[in-house]
Write a structure and sequence with these properties.
The chain is mainly β and 124 residues long. The protein is built from no helices and eleven strands. The strands form two sheets. Strands 2, 4, 5, 6, 9, 10 and 11 form a seven-stranded mixed beta sheet that branches. Strands 1-3-8-7 form a four-stranded antiparallel beta sheet, with no helix packed on it. The chain is globular and about 40 Å long.
Length: 124
């Protein structure tokens, strides 16, 4: 089992930056693909970013490409999401997820473990 705990969310203004962290326990993340998803009120959970086990491949949704960066530090068993130029439409609960597939996966059903989420609120 892998336990994932997100942190770093908060209330910011449009144009600000935040860095989310996802710390894992229970097992090493070094062989897992990792992803970030988000869910806004009244909307379905959507893909944000994903990274392969080595960090060599990343994918982003069109809505965050060029503003968000996913990275990982396998030695620290942690994955990050750097979010720049935040917009009010980025407001959501952000979830970290891990997949056995080891690749950068963009679809939620492929993920095996999920964190509890961290709230990000961007005011205009």
């Amino acid at each position: 089992q892998v336990q994932l705990v997100e942190s770093g969310g908060g209330l910011v203004q449009a144009g600000d930056s935040l860095r989310l962290s996802c710390a894992a326990s229970g097992r090493s993340l070094s062989t897992y693909g990792m992803g970030w998803f988000r869910q806004a009120p009244g909307k379905e959970r959507e893909f944000v970013a994903a990274i392969s086990w080595s960090g060599g491949r990343t994918y982003y949704s069109d809505s965050v490409k060029g503003r968000f960066t996913i990275s990982r530090d396998n030695a620290k068993n942690t994955v990050y999401l750097q979010m720049n130029s935040l917009k009010p439409e980025d407001t959501a609960v952000y979830y970290c997820a891990a997949t056995f597939l080891a690749q950068a996966i963009t679809t939620a059903p492929e993920y095996d473990f999920w964190g509890q989420g961290t709230q990000v609120t961007v005011s205009s």
